[in-house]
Amino acid sequence: MQLEEKCDSHMELIGKSRQHMGEKAHTNGKLVANGEATVSVKQEANGKPDMPGKCLNIYTWQEIQRHNMETDQWVVINRKVYNITSWADRHPGGHRVLNHYAGEDATDVFRAMHPNLDTVQLYLKPLLIGELAPEEPSQERNKNSQLVEDFQELRRSLEDMNMFKANLGFFFLHLAQILILEALAWLTLWYFGSGWTVTILISFLLTISQAQSAFLQHDIGHLSVFQKTKWNHLMHRFVMGHLKGLSADWWNYRHFQHHVKPNIYPKDPDIDMGPLFLLGDSQPVKYGKKKIKYIDYEKQHLYFYLVGLPLLMPVYFNGQSMQVMYLRRYWADIAMVSSFYIRHFLTFSPFYGIFGTLLLIYLVKFLESPWIAYVTQMSHIPMKMSTEENHDWFSTQVLATCNIEQSFFNDWFTGHLNFQIEHHLFPTMPRHNYHKVAPLVKSLCKKHGLQYVNKSMLKALGDIPRALKKSAALWIEAYYET
Asked: Under DSSP, is residue 435 helix (H, G, I), strand (E, B) or coil?
């Protein structure tokens, strides 16, 4: 391995040495091993030493890719090498998202998930341990460097066009819609009483409110509303906890894993639905060859309507949120979720009593569940699923997502997640700008031979059971193979 060392006051290369792995060499009077040129490092995030004479260790991709375990994690950002092992447990987005990129170039995912670079670079500064050797490419050799460069140029253009600047009026009207629906439900109940007809009516009003709250918390959770991260976090906790009764931290840790590695086993928790559902091509074959049959997977496309749609929100998400919140002692979330139930008891118990209010809460979650399940799954379940293939950021997102045709209703019904491709490429972009950048993304896909999938709503909804049926067929073939 060729080693180079930056050490003079003008950061010029002053020495080259060839070392085999395991050899020891003297560099600046210090013994070093493993082929690294060890030098005194002024740790920083932007790669520009603020004192002459400071040096950075030089690493090859071969060396970096060995540090890909939970107990030993390095990442590359803008050609700088960071040891994030000790920081992972304190990462606000959870430790798993960092581990998912250990040993890889994380430049584009880092930029995609962090709108305020000045703040996060303060955390990166003490983690800097070196940089890529000059002869090394900026990303792993299996990645399309031209595509990476084109995507980064596209992002810079979008930043210049202010596509990442939110229209606060848009989100204020969205929040107003939610609060008006909640108030209208209570006023209807107060004026007309708690008969069956009124109960059904207010259940639908509250269902719309809850679904739209889910989309709003999604926006805020991605830091796409306010310029200051602190305000996004505070508002996200309010919407997710007080308006929806779910843990904000639980959602963040789960959802960010999905975003950084969508449809990739086992890193994306959204496709880990075993043993109830088998998704994609490889998981059904794996279960089939091992003769695993927890349930009749041949019929999974049918019981998806009986189990997957109605129980996603009231059972799976609600139960997992409660479990994680209490086991990990997320006290702020516990307080906000408690306020959700207190508010409902104060508002509705005079009409339904305590038990009746609980039934109303979970009836609404039951009605909301198919809406959220369809919106979140129709853009991913029919798309490619695989184990880690270490694609570039652009390819990773485009291969795992698809769009739904734009219309006023589709935008409203999906919370603009009909632009799933754009959302995954630019998670911190305000959703009201997706339609503006979609033609540019489509053009980049065409240039590099990637399919930009855009479907009708009906086709997208039908593709979910069709994909489940296809996966079931693969399981059957492997299960009964002699």
From this structure: helix
For the beta carbon of residue 468, count every other beta carbon within 10 angstroms.
Answer: 25
Read off the tokens for 202: 């207010």
Cα 10 versus chain centre, distance: 41
d(CA 201, CA 367): 12
Measured CA distances, 398 to 168, 292, 323, 344 (Å): 29, 32, 33, 41
Read off the pLDDT of residues 235-269 as tens digits, 9 standing for 90 and up. Answer: 999 999 999 999 999 999 999 999 999 999 999 99
Phi/psi at 151 (5° precision): -65, -40
Which amino acid belongs to residue 198?
V
Q: Are 67 and 18 in contact (CB under 8 A)?
A: no
Q: Are 300 and 473 in contact (CB under 8 A)?
A: no
pTM of the shown model: 0.87
Question: Is residue 287 within a helix (H) or strand (E), and if so which, with residue range?
Answer: helix 282-289
Q: Which residues contact 162 (CB under 8 A, 6 or more apart)?
A: none
pLDDT digits (tens, 9 = 90+) for 87-108: 999 998 889 999 999 999 999 9
- 243: its two tokens: 């308006």
CB 133 within 8 A of CB 16: no
Q: For position 15, what pLDDT does the model report?
A: 37
3-state class (DSSP) for residue 406: coil
- Compute the half-sphere exposure of residue 150: CA atoms within 13 Å on the CB side of its CA: 17
Cα distance between residue 292 and residue 447, in whole Å: 43
